[in-house]
Amino acid sequence: MATTKGNPTPFGHAMLHHFLTDPSYLPLNHGSFGTYPKPVRECLHHFQDLSEFRPDAFFRYDLPDYVDSARSAVARLLGVGSGECVFVSNATTGVNTVLRSLVFEQGDVIVHFSTIYGSCEKTVGYLKETTPVESAKVVVDYPIGDHDLLARFQEKISQLKRDGKRPRVALFDTVSSLPGVRVPWEKLVEICKAEAILSLVDGAHGVGHIDLKLSQVQPDFLVSNCH
After folding, report:
1. What are phi and psi of 182, to 5 degrees?
2. What are the residues whose beta carbons fall under 8 Å from the beta carbon of 74, sequence distance 6 or more?
3. What is the dihedral of CA 43, 49, 50, 55, to 10 degrees?
4. SS3 track for the chain
5. With pLDDT > 70 as the criterion, what percentage of the chain qualifies?
6. pLDDT band at residue 30 under the 50/70/90 scheme
7. How many CB atoms lie within 10 A of CB 154?
8. What is the C-alpha to C-alpha distance for residues 172 and 116, in angstroms, rounded to an integer?
9. What is the C-alpha separation between 206 and 173, in angstroms, rounded?
């Protein structure tokens, strides 16, 4: 983000003047109730005004072009084609969209970690009640190294297959919420590919946080937030 003189603002306290946050208030929960910079708000208001100036023309003719332009911008950031990007309300909606679009059969299993986001775990629970799918939880207790985490994931898959189950899809984070830890999701995707399991990456804390390199890693599904 640039200053009024066009020079980049250094990361840290100098960024505060770009936000509307009360200087005497220290926000710690950006995930639930984050805020956006003033230039983003100005852009938001600009599009709100456009939608009010000529509502029918805006929604019927202009908005699709604006959406395609935004998809292209996100695609460049992710390193993929714009045809691979769609917009959803938030990452949790994306996870629901993917999981509820799959047709599960007897013996299918959704594999996830014990650090799964709460709303996503509720979706898994709902699917267990309404479809034949089962779930398998990989328990992790931090601190834990990436090597051990990957080993537990691999062992859970091997155990399920020995028991005659079919791991159908694995759901895991780029950066988990509780605790806030970067997950070796790239390696988890590799394991999924080797084991013929669909990979569903919850990248709610992904875009803008880490380099996702989707064209290289190529998960089956990745959802994220752009806040």
Report:
1. -70, 125
2. 82, 85, 207, 226
3. 140
4. CECCCCCECCCCHHHHHHCCCCCCCCCCCHHHHCCCCHHHHHHHHHHHHHHHHCHHHHHHHHHHHHHHHHHHHHHHHHCCCHHHCCCCCCHHHHHHHHHHHCCCCCCEEEEEECCCCHHHHHHHHHHHHHCCCEEEEECCCCCCCHHHHHHHHHHHHHHHHHCCCEEEEEEEECECCCCCCECCHHHHHHHHHHCCCEEEEEECCCCCCCCCCHHHHCCCEEEECCC
5. 95
6. low
7. 16
8. 7
9. 9
Confidence of residue 3 (pLDDT cuts 50, 70, 90): low
Please say whether the beta carbons of 206 and 174 come within 8 A: yes
Per the listing, tokens 């709100």 go with 48
Output the pTM of the full model.
0.86
Separation CA 42–CA 139 (nearest Å) = 44
User: Would you state the structure tokens that stand for residue 52, as one six-digit string?
Assistant: 């009010």
Token pair 């993917």 is at which residue? Answer: 98
pLDDT of the residue at 79: 87
